[in-house]
Amino acid sequence: MNNEELQADVLVVGAGPVGLTLAMDLASRGVKVVIAEIRRYAEPPNVKCNHVSARTMEQFRRLGVAQKLRDAGLPADYPNDVVFRTSVTGIELTRIPIPCRRDRYSETEGPDAWWPTPEPPHRINQIFLEPILLQHAAALPGVTLLNRTQVTAFTQDDEGVVATAADLDAGTTRTIRCRFMVGCDGGSSGVRKQMGAKLEGTAVIQRVQSTYIRAPRLREMIPGKPAWSYYSVNPRRCGTMFAIDGHETWLVHNHLNAEEPEFDSVDRDRSIREILGVGDDFRYDVISKEDWVGRRLVANRFRDGRVFLAGDAAHLWVPYAGYGMNAGIADAINLSWLLAACLQGWAAEGILDAYEAERQPITEQVSQFAMDHAQKMIRARRAVPADIEAAGDEGDALRAEVGREAYELNVQQFCCAGLNFGYFYTDSPIISADGEAPPPYSMGDFTPSTVPGCRAPHFWLPDGRSLYDAFGPGYTLLRFDRRTDTSALEQAAESSGMPLVILDVDAPEVPPAYRHRMVLCRADQHVAWRGDRLPSDVAGLVARLRGQTPRERAGLAESREHASA
After folding, report:
1. Residues 49-74: pLDDT tens digits?
2. Average of per-residue pLDDT values in the chain
3. Can you state the angle between helices 17-28 and 126-138, rounded to 10 degrees?
4. Is the predicted pLDDT of residue 1 greater than 50, yes or no?
5. What distance in Å separates the CA atoms of residue 250 and residue 214, rounded to the nearest whole number?
6. Which of 399, 374, 278 is nearest to 321 (CA)?
7. Would you say 101 and 48 are in contact if contact means Cβ atoms under 8 Å apart?
8. Which among 102, 124, 121 is positioned nearest to 111, based on CA atoms?
9. Largest CA distance in the chain
């Protein structure tokens, strides 16, 4: 039986972190959003994500939830270090220092304390993160949250999308009419399947037997300074443990070997005890089993007309460097301002072509980084020396060498400046390239750049604001010389309705990457154009920024020629 019909600008399918962030960003731009979620309101999520990247925190700052997130998770003084030991309670091999959240803004020492960002990363589990995002999103004007609702089918035409949604409790259905729909409904995405998009890549890289436990006595048994993440390195069982609440709850990952193809291939309890380094008398409780498969899969399409994919619906990979959820949020931020530009009427629908053109290549790159690191970690786990726990000088020397190798391999994934700030968009229809190639980046390293497509390098304004705090909702032109005439660009933007903010920069310390008098930045902080003077065809540049196709731009130029004749 059908009941009420709902209408929205955008239907977001899935209320995980990606869907909620997308809804929050759309709502901040005045877009009417309906979110369909199969879970009950505030039903706890899986204990999956443990890390919010700096790039994501930059966006949460703009959306007004960064401080709320900083105040949640581990205790304020709990170290966010990553430590490698022969077991969780065993001998320490090496440590990657990461500040506790109390010191996150003030710490200047360490492999990620130097980062050029207003918002360093934050270690917080999804069980603390998601409720904050949910509460914030649900309270926003223009957001309608439908829990226990499953989108079962949809059709689309040139005007919009009509989705059929089932009320899982009442057994009824409703119709949702929207201009656009985005599937943020996870790895088994029903939206992706109905689109006909396929995940392609490596289906299984590694299986991980993962267990969420309560062990109140464990913390007092761990020697030395606490850590957020513990790597257990011994010839019996290698694994990883994350502190969840900083007191008594922990997530233990048991990395299965190639000859252990199923989750029940090894004894769960015995493996946990070997990873922790505890005997049979140690008591712990299993809260839940969170087993997962590491993959490298990317959808062959991120879009079908007015329907889009974001997050795990579009890509799945081993979450090294914490870039599972964070990559999905990057999708949401990229897509949101494009959809809003269309819905607000100042951009052509061609602007939406940028989403797949930009995000699909990046997800391919990031997934390759993650898979490469996963393969190196698999080899390292199989190469643990049999006598790594031996006493004496020889054992000490061996542990020092294993620790050095572990640090060098893993500091890049836990302090991954490259993945945060180095990625860039090329071959995008709304970016005006100038012939200079963006600098290459790795998981851990990057070179700040204003090459179009790169993230605009961050700096602080004289009034104490972050550069990004001063960005407008559409495009922002950074003008480094007030004598530079920008009137033609301002007029072209105004006549087309394109939002443009002129930001005169008088900061005494500007990153050297800003070599041009003007750098034009997008709402998502990526550079769209730069130069020392405006191009001769300013109207053509604005047409590109608004998503007009080359044919439409050619027609525009022809009409201007006729008008001037």
Report:
1. 899 999 999 999 999 999 999 999 99
2. 93
3. 30
4. no
5. 6
6. 374
7. no
8. 121
9. 92
Is there a contact between 267 and 171 (Cβ–Cβ < 8 Å)?
no
Per-residue model confidence (pLDDT) at position 348: 96
Give the span between the Cα atoms of 182 and 309, in whole angstroms. Answer: 6
Pairing type for strands 229-232 and 82-85 reads: parallel
* Amino acid letter, residue 475: Y
C-alpha 372 chain-centroid distance: 19
- CA nearest 330: which of 422, 467, 229? 422
Residues 348-401 have pLDDT tens digits of 999 999 999 999 998 888 878 877 888 888 888 888 999 999 999 999 999 999
Q: Which of 449, 400, 401 is nearest to 422 (CA)?
A: 449
Q: Write the CA distances from 285 to 12, 46, 225, 227, 547, integer angstroms.
A: 37, 17, 24, 21, 55
Let me know if 249 is exposed, middle or buried by CB neighbors in 10 A (0-12, 13-18, 19+): buried
CA distances from 238 to 84, 271, 321 (A): 11, 9, 19
pLDDT, tens digit (0-9, with 9 covering 90-100), for 282-293: 999 999 999 998
**Percent of the chain at pLDDT above 90?**
85
Q: What span, in angstroms and rounded, lies between the C-alpha atoms of 100 and 106?
A: 10
CB atoms < 10 A from the CB of 151, how many? Answer: 23
| Residue 75 CB burial class (10 angstroms; 0-12, 13-18, ≥19) | middle
Residue 563: predicted pLDDT: 53
Number of helices (H), then strands (E), in the chain = 14, 21
Residue whose entry in the numeric block shows the structure tokens 């020889």:
394
